[in-house]
Amino acid sequence: MSGYLARGGPPGGADTAGAPPGAEPRPAGTPKTVGIVWGLLALNTLGSAGAKTIVPLPRSLIQMVTMGALGAAFALALAVNLRLRVRSSAFVFLLTLLLVPSVISSANLEVGFGALFRCARLALFVGTLWLLSRWWDGSLTFVRYHIRMYFAVLGLVAAGLVVSPGTALPEYYGGRLVGALWPLTPPQIGQYSAVIIGLTVLLLLGRRTTGAGAAVIIVPSLVLLALTHTRTATLGLLIGLVLAIGSLMLASAAARRFFAWAVLCATVAAVVFSSALQAWFLRGQSQENLSSLTGRAKVWDALLAAPRTSSEQVFGVGLGDKSFGGLPIDNSWLAVYNEQGLIGVALVAAFILVLGGVALLRPPSPARACAIFLISYVGISSYTEAGLGDASPYLLHLALAASLLAAPAAATPRPTATPLTTAAVPRRRIPLWARR
């Protein structure tokens, strides 16, 4: 895995040739501390609620670890960027504006003091992204950070499955894979698996990794994704890859070949394994339960029908645990509407549209394909998963997309040596007899 992740050319920001004079110099390379900060951000977004683990972990301890990770991430990012050099980013700017309705609605304490705590967490998360934006240059450096962190999380899940299969595949989750060593739910594991599978496939198509290195990531992640029985993650992976590979087809023969083989294999699998795929997709549920999205539609109808004041409609009720009436909302747009109001919904829609628009304007490249995959995946998952209005893996995926879409910063050229001027040599007077 280390050899696979080490490939990909020079570090982001190392190239300084051919820049216009007077431009801001780019960093000589991305420090290793930046990768640690990115991993700590991912650790913070793992959450503190989930399945039962082999060794019961108090929720207060898990929250201490995740919040400590966020505090350490901000401190390290500040230490490595003491001069507070940041790059302009429409995504992070709109995310900063999202703090305004969050603080206004949370100040009413309608959902308790926890709302202010979540606002402080979101502020630290956004502040850390601002500090890291200095190294956003459109390279694939942060993609490798992303894959490393979530592959390590999946390794922890796989270890729990080996140590205690009964705990990792509990009956109360219908036999779906959960985290036995760290409390992770099936949708979380499915999300991490789908994201790193998609990114690794795109790195392989862009010849940024080897086939053996990609197989080390893709094969075990596919197994874990299948064990989670997560429909949203699977659909997000397939649709996101179709859109991302489609953006490469005009410029990459490898992408065209892969797409053709993928369509052929998918067609054969759909014909041969149709009954097995249908059983996996239904997960033993009835058609009525499936049509109501496992009960989510009832919660959504109740949330929309609940009476609200004008202030609650505009600013929301404050950052909470993404639930309504004690039941999870499981929809990012309705969760944002409930907690940050119509202003929050408009801001979330704005930064997704901005990222999508910039991705369409960029020339074909592996970085652009990875960004399109991430934006598509998050957009699809937002229908049945919450998290776009608070510090979450979905915001971290979009931050990665923003780093991939950032234009390489121009650098001042190296000063060239000033040509030596030859001092004027006085002409020597030649005698008359010598001239003759």
Q: What is the general shape?
A: globular
Task: Please state how the strands of the largest beta sheet are arranged side by side.
Answer: 1-2
- Report how far apart the termini are: 86 Å
Helix tally?
20
What value does the Rg take, in angstroms?
Answer: 26 Å
Instruction: Assess the beta-strand content as a share of residues.
Output: under 5%
Order of helices and strands: HHHHHHHHHHHHHHHHEEHHHH
How would you sum up this structure, described in words?
This protein is an all-alpha fold and 436 residues long. The protein contains 20 helices and two strands. It has helices at residues 2-6, 32-44, 59-80, 90-97, 99-106, 114-132, 141-163, 165-168, 186-205, 211-228, 231-246, 253-272, 274-282, 287-291, 296-305, 310-315, 332-361, 366-381, 393-405, 432-435; strands spanning 323-324, 327-328. The protein has a two-stranded antiparallel sheet with strand order 1-2. A hairpin with a 2-residue loop joins strand 1 and strand 2. Helix 4 runs antiparallel to helix 17 and helix 9 (186-205) packs antiparallel against helix 10 (211-228). The chain is globular. The protein starts with a helix and ends with a helix. The model is unreliable at 6-27 and 417-422 (pLDDT under 50).
